[in-house]
Amino acid sequence: MRRREFISLLGGAALLVALMLTVCGSIVRAGPFEAATDAYKRNDDVTALRLLRPLVEQGNVVAQN
Q1: Which of 6, 17, 30, 43 would be a feasible disulfide site paired with 34, CB 3.0-4.6 Å?
Q2: Contacts of 64 (CB under 8 A, 6+ apart)
Q3: Which whole-number Å values give the CA distances from 59 to 29, 33, 35, 56, in the listed order?
Q4: In the predicted model, what is the mean pLDDT of residues 2-14?
């Protein structure tokens, strides 16, 4: 394999990895509502309330229930 072909292949692989990390990273991330739900399940009511209060104040209907 020539050097130029190798560099081109390496660049394509790096682009593919960057794209995969971008797509997968956004799927895995949890927001404040999910974090509050997890805190509630752990019986950490103080943290759950701290995370839910801004959502409720912003009018998030799911957080209000």
Answers
A1: 30
A2: 56
A3: 22, 13, 18, 5
A4: 71
